[in-house]
Amino acid sequence: MKRKHAHHRNHPPEPRAYHDSTFGCDAVKIMPSEYYVTSREMVIVTVLGSCISACIRDPVSGIGGMNHFMLPGKDGDDITSASARYGGYAMEILINQIQKLGGRRSNLEAKLFGGAVALPGLATRSVGEMNAEFALRYPMPRTFRCLRTICWASTHARSIFFRRADASWCGC
Fold it and tell me: Measuring CA to CA, which residue among 46, 63, 58, 51 is closest to residue 8?
């Protein structure tokens, strides 16, 4: 059976693709409001501050991906919430794209990262705190296994490297 080698993101597919010598494989870097889904053995990379990234994969089909959203969300009737910069839309588009490429919702595993307090002292609740609350409350399907949740109260940005094949990650 021929293995599916597909990927998608909401911008042209390869401008930030490169070979990562640390991991010894191809990699792609996603920016805020983007997502990337693949069945290839590769690393998906992003840098997070107050934003959140969900790394979701189907270990049976080998399809997985990452999103990077900036804000928790807006009212579902608001047309601006139909953007990957908002958590609800970013989560749904990532899950739907994994399913579109052959992943099964019942097999999905997730890891959540982010929520730093990027500008401490400017508000009672920071965007990072609101993002982390949203991610932790997001209604994952009952069959999802949330393998790890890393939401930190740091004031520093961190790089996240996600290998979809084995769901390993490295944050630095």
Answer: 63
**Entry pTM:** 0.77
Is residue 51 annotated as part of the catalytic site, yes or no? yes
Catalytic residue among 25, 51, 146, 172: 51
Nearest Cα to 115, choosing from 154, 89, 87?
154
Domain boundaries, the chain: 7-171
Give the number of residues written for the chain.
Answer: 172
What pLDDT, in 10s, does the model give residues 102-145?
A: 999 888 888 888 877 766 566 566 777 777 777 777 766 555 56
What number does CATH give the domain 7-171? 3.30.1330.200
Cα–Cα distance for residue pair 172/166, rounded to 1 Å: 19
CA distances from 106 to 87, 102, 164 (A): 21, 12, 17
Strand order in the sheet with 43-48: 17-20, 25-29, 43-48, 158-163, 168-171
113 sits in which H/E element? strand 109-114
CB atoms within 10 A of CB 64: 28
CA distance linking residue 132 with residue 126, whole number of Å? 10
Q: How far apart are CA 58 and CA 110, in angstroms?
A: 9
Number of alpha helices (DSSP H) and beta strands (DSSP E) in the chain: 2, 11
